[in-house]
């Protein structure tokens, strides 16, 4: 699953749009006080984490977008199965 598919799957579960941010696909202006994020690292890898109190806290880093999307899916839904 890519970021577009992840966004659609998360919306389908009823998760609030304010609960997450996906680089280039679902971004906030202005920023909510806290949310989970998925973004590309400077080295081309992908990271997920939490934005809280004005600071980004990277929790995990992945080699591929697909792995990062699966990691964020698990973090937000508590489910290990694929969103598709």
Give a count of the beta strands, DSSP E runs of length 2 or more. 4
Taking Cα atoms only, what radius of gyration do you get, to the nearest Å?
12 Å
Strand content: 25-35%
General shape: globular
**What's the total helix number?**
2
- Could you say which structural class the secondary elements and strand pairing correspond to? alpha+beta
Largest sheet data: 4 strands, mixed
Termini gap: 8 Å
Order of helices and strands: HEEEEH
Residue stretches low in confidence (pLDDT < 50, at least 5 long) are: none
Please render the helix and strand layout as text:
Elements: H1 3-13, E1 20-22, E2 34-40, E3 46-52, E4 55-62, H2 65-77
Parallel strand pairs: 1-2
Antiparallel strand pairs: 2-3, 3-4
Helix pairs in contact: 1-2
Overview of this structure, please?
- By secondary structure, the chain is of the alpha+beta class.
- It has 2 helices and 4 strands.
- The chain has helices at residues 3-13, 65-77; strands at residues 20-22, 34-40, 46-52, 55-62.
- Strands 1-2-3-4 form a 4-stranded mixed sheet.
- α1 runs parallel beside α2.
- The longest helix is centred in the C-terminal third of the chain and has 13 residues, at 65-77.
- The protein is globular, with a radius of gyration of 12 Å.
- The mean pLDDT is 94.
């Amino acid at each position: 699953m890519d970021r577009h598919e992840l966004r659609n799957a998360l919306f389908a579960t009823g998760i609030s749009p304010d609960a997450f941010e996906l680089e280039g696909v679902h971004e906030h202006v202005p920023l909510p006080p806290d949310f989970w994020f998925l973004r590309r690292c400077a080295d081309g890898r992908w990271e997920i984490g939490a934005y809280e109190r004005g600071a980004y806290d990277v929790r995990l880093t992945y080699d591929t977008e697909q792995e990062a999307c699966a990691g964020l899916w698990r973090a937000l839904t508590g489910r290990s199965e694929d969103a598709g």
